[in-house]
Write a structure and sequence with these properties.
Layout lengths: L2 H4 L11 H14 L11 H8 L3 H13 L3 E4 L2 E4 L4 H23 L7 H16 L9 H14 L3 H21 L5 H17 L3 H24 L21
């Protein structure tokens, strides 16, 4: 899964110690949506993938667990699956961060990076016109949109915090992108937000962003509370996904 970006002898990654190399590759893959909620990593499978001993793998996974990117399951390690009672606070934090980005432009000296907003608009217009097949990794596109809008407001510190919040809710949100209509809806809502920001209709942009995030929170909570969720929520995974590296 990660050989191309981490073990190529012509890349700088090979100059890193084994622990750092494995850690960086796994973290990048997780945040790119390449690890699904039902995937399970084991020390043996990761060590085999990177042709290293289990010691650097164990150290790398320990770092990712400490950062809240992975958690231990009965059959290995996987994405963090937040408890239903933790979702409310995580989504409140996400909403506060993203609204602060709009407010610092609307009520302060900051200005939006219009080139970045225009690039986002072009990207999502293209996605709306030619929607990709439903897939869990599509959540990475959504996360990139929200981080980029916040970045366009000129506050990198807020972006860093938003990335951390996204790490905690990513697994639940991935299930939403298994549905064919989720990306289409996200595209419409994202373009609406961008249009309002470009028109400097900041109050309406706050309203649209709030409705967008609250709807995402409701969907995530419904999945977390579902009695028979898809593989992953009960700490189980399909047998052919354990320790598999496509």
């Amino acid at each position: 899964m990660y050989t191309d970006v981490s073990t190529d002898p012509n890349t700088e990654a090979t100059a890193l110690p084994a622990t750092d190399r494995v850690y960086e590759a796994l973290r990048t893959a997780i945040r790119a949506g390449q690890v699904s909620p039902w995937d399970r990593l084991t020390e043996k499978s990761v060590a085999s993938e990177f042709a290293v001993s289990r010691t650097p793998v164990r150290e790398s996974i320990a770092r990712l667990v400490a950062e809240g990117l992975l958690q231990r399951h009965s059959n290995g390690f996987g994405l963090v699956l937040p408890a239903p009672d933790a979702l409310g606070g995580l989504y409140e934090a996400r909403l506060a961060l993203e609204l602060q980005g709009i407010r610092r432009v609307a009520h302060g000296p900051a200005e939006y990076d219009t080139d970045l907003l225009a690039a986002l608009s072009t990207q999502w217009q293209q996605l709306r016109a030619d929607l990709p097949e439903p897939a869990p990794q599509m959540v990475a596109l959504d996360e990139a949109f929200h981080c980029s809008v916040l970045e366009a407001a000129g506050e990198p510190a807020l972006v860093s915090v938003l990335v951390h919040v996204n790490d905690r809710i990513r697994a639940l949100r991935m299930y939403g992108y298994m549905a064919s209509d989720r990306l289409a809806l996200a595209a419409e809502q994202h373009l609406q937000i961008l249009d309002l920001l470009s028109l400097q209709e900041y109050h309406d942009a706050e309203t649209a962003m709030t409705e967008h995030i609250i709807s995402s929170r409701h969907a995530a909570l419904a999945r977390a509370l579902h009695k028979k969720p898809a593989h992953g929520f009960a700490g189980t995974a399909p047998t052919d996904t354990v320790a598999q590296w496509p």
